[in-house]
Write a structure and sequence with these properties.
- This protein has about 350 residues and is of the alpha/beta class.
- The protein has 13 helices and 9 strands.
- The chain has a 9-stranded mixed sheet with strand order 4-3-5-2-6-1-7-8-9, with helices on both faces.
- The longest helix has about 30 residues.
Length: about 350
């Protein structure tokens, strides 16, 4: 981990006077370095909308930490970590003072107002990130849970937010359900997930709605679909669960019901395997992101160096073409790309 940090620092210091585009990449490198220094394992609940991701997260925590509902609720990625007491922090994109509350009675209302699509449609409040602290032995192992918007819902911005947060994750639970079975859209999203996150588990939720034969059929179908995906590493693990009944079992302190709802094995993975392998997983994702970002920085530097070598008249002509494109259609790519490859 230390050697990776050294390489990141060296890459950042290699650009003495960064341009705007280079500075953006350097800021991402800096955030990655901060994540590596923090050493926390970020595990995301991923999948299509209304598959029960938020309910599963609440069931793992044993408390209604994030809001749930019959319509798409989670519109903003929400990060939950261990803390001495319950607290919530809302950070805004426009630089406005963050909203912080540690009053337990206020937290549910604050979260619903800023996380939900109903209260915060199209993210009109310009929320950048929502962070929650809870008292949890489960998270004391250095794990952060991330509740993500579902992909494929009515709201395209939810899908964009769900895809954007992938670079913040080290591991994931990909949540599906038997009705409908895993879809082509979910398989496509899974491909994007697998490219960025090395450790993925699969949760087949709502199996309480099936009889034993239907459950076996649903499990075989999901396994067959996953086997056909070359990007999914073999073997993979599927956990058949009922998030709704698991949450109720946690609230009732019913250990037998918890086992029956499929949560014992999933919790063992979090408290055992992920806790033990935390450092290795964080390093693996950090290495993947470092290679990608340093590659971007090198490519951007080459583009801008090539642009500087162009005759002044060529630069003026291509810059004029770029400005015309912006006026007509909006910028399709950074101006430095246009200087090299007009019309990209």
């Amino acid at each position: 981990m230390a050697s990776l940090g050294f390489l990141l620092a060296r890459a950042a210091s290699s650009v003495a006077n960064p341009t705007s585009a280079q500075r953006q990449i350097l800021e991402r490198l800096s955030r990655l370095q901060a994540r590596l220094d923090e050493g926390l394992l970020r595990v995301a609940m991923l999948g299509q909308f209304k598959r029960g991701k938020s309910t599963l997260l609440n069931a793992l925590l044993g408390a209604p930490a994030v809001p749930i509902g019959v319509t798409p609720v989670t519109a903003i990625p929400t990060f939950i970590k261990a803390g001495p007491k319950a607290a919530a922090r809302i950070t805004f994109q426009d630089g406005k003072e963050p909203l912080v509350t540690s009053v337990a009675g206020e937290i549910p209302g604050v979260l619903e107002r800023y996380i939900s699509e109903v209260k915060n449609p199209h993210n009109r409040f310009n929320v950048e990130i929502v962070e929650i602290e809870v008292r949890s032995e489960f998270l004391d192992h250095g794990i952060v849970l991330i509740d993500t918007p579902g992909v494929g819902s009515t709201f395209v911005q939810n899908t964009r937010a769900a895809e954007a947060v992938l670079t913040e994750c080290d591991a994931a639970v990909f949540v599906v359900s038997p009705d409908p079975p895993i879809t082509e859209a979910e398989v496509s999203y899974l491909s994007k997930v697998q490219e960025l996150i090395p450790k993925i588990f699969f949760a087949l939720n709502r199996v309480d709605l099936l009889d034993s034969q239907e459950r076996s059929t649903a499990e075989r179908f999901l396994a067959d679909v996953l086997k056909e995906q070359p990007i999914v590493p073999q073997p993979f693990r599927i956990f058949s669960i009922s998030a709704k009944q698991g949450l109720q079992a946690k609230l009732n302190r019913d250990s037998q019901a918890l086992v029956a709802r499929g949560f014992e094995l999933l919790e063992q993975i979090f408290a055992g395997e992920l806790a033990r392998e935390k450092r290795e997983i964080v390093f693996a994702t950090g290495r993947m992101r470092s290679i990608s970002l340093v590659g971007e920085l090198l490519f951007q530097s080459k583009l801008e160096h090539k642009a500087l070598l162009m005759p002044e008249e060529d630069l003026k002509q291509k810059a004029g073409t770029f400005e015309s494109s912006v006026a007509r259609f909006g910028a399709p790519c950074p101006i430095s790309y246009w200087l090299i490859e007009p019309g990209c």
